[in-house]
Amino acid sequence: MTDAPLASRSFSPDDQIAFARLSSDWNPMHLDQAFARRTQFGAPVVHGIHTLAWAANTLLARFPLKIATIRARFPQPLYLDERATISIRARTDARIEFEVVAANTVVAHAKLSTVPGKSVAENARLAASKTVQPAQPADLRFEQLADRAGAVTIGDDDAKSLFPALTESIGLPAVKALLATSQIVGMACPGLHSLFAGLEVSCDPQGDREGFLAYAVRKVDARFRSLQIDVSGSGIAGRLDAFARPAPPSQAAMVEISPRVAGAPFAGQRSLIVGGSRGLGEVTAKIVAAGGGHAVITYHESPHDAERVATEIVGAGGRCEILRYDAASPANEQLHKLGAIDCCYYFATPKIFQRKSGLYEPEKLRTFLSFYADGFFDLCTALADGTAGKLVVFYPSTVAIDEAASTTAEYAMAKTAGEILAKYVNEFMPGLHVICRRLPRILTDQTATVGVASADNALDVMLPIVYDVQQMARPDPAPRG
């Protein structure tokens, strides 16, 4: 047994496309930056089966075995261009146990064994219904998954050239079927909003060669949105474990917001909403516009999201313009054409719920501080230089400061630093007034997770805050609606 790394590599976008062709898993969470940004991962991730097949092939090239059973778990995502390393945890003449690690975090754990598993005996050969090769990922409600069954076509591309040692061990049909498990989870069941958690399959190099892989959902658990899926065909039989991720939440539309904003309480006011293309910023921009104000929303990576929000606001008779803004770059250079504003809302943020290998990681704290302290102060300085009167700034803090969780230590620490900084801005920058509120957990892209978690409605939380901010920026406060 050894902890010494055996091999390492990173996966590029071209690698993703090549594997998608082999497996027929074109789920956009692996290929589309804009789509993946709205998932819990925040960026495209490597197919779990790709990670497994690469690692298994690498090990079998050095330690040949005739594998009968493959067990694997994918506890954390592996991101593109991230260095992944294989480490052997245990090895005998009949078994290899290994991990794939990235950034000190296990992203895959697997066992390869020459002993046939129970899955062949327990999992009767599934009847093959009409085979398909989905052109688009299925977008199904969780309730539709309980009795889901079918079969996917196994690709004709030769996987042997990419995974020769794995092919020698379990046979080409079984390799193709193993890759097709990614197609089942990512394209067929659960499909679009899926997460591949792991598998246990038995391999038979002399098994059937029908060219399809049948599947049937055996068990679902609505509490965790989890599924167990039986598979059989083309030399493998076993079980897949998957989760159905919640779809990215949609924020309230103008038709819902406008009736809750009486009259035009924000008329004549121009508000900058940093991060106004989605989430809390999107709702804030719509509230401002519904109240007769002029919303200037910023985006960093996705102009499409910003244009969508602006189009909805303008279509409802509101006023809105968009501006690209990067909180990690000098604010003055980006805001020189902004013009006069009355209020600013600061929603710039990195991914909050990040993959972690320990309770405290200094680099993550530095990343959060670059947004919640450095970027915030730089923006305040730029706004103070460009205003002759009072300008009100909203700084969103979080109840995570009081609700200690091992996954959010750095986030809470950085938000605490931001609260302290806000007090200093109020004390020593007389042209600005910062309103700081600790917000509850609110349903946004950032907080939508697989597990059941309570979250407040963004409109309900932000509506009174926007009234407070806008009224403080106006010498003659308007009545609340």
Describe the structure.
- It contains 13 helices and 17 strands.
- It is α/β, with parallel strands linked by helices and 481 residues long.
- The chain folds into two domains: 5-244, Thiol Ester Dehydrase, Chain A (Roll), CATH 3.10.129; 254-472, Rossmann fold (3-Layer(aba) Sandwich), CATH 3.40.50.
- The strands form two sheets. An eleven-stranded mixed beta sheet has the order 1-3-4-5-2-8-11-10-9-7-6. A six-stranded parallel beta sheet has the order 14-13-12-15-16-17, sandwiched between helices.
- It starts with a strand and ends in a 9-residue tail after the last helix.
- The model has no long low-confidence stretch (mean pLDDT 91).
- Residues 8-94 form the MaoC-like domain.
- GO terms for molecular function: (3R)-hydroxyacyl-[acyl-carrier-protein] dehydratase activity.
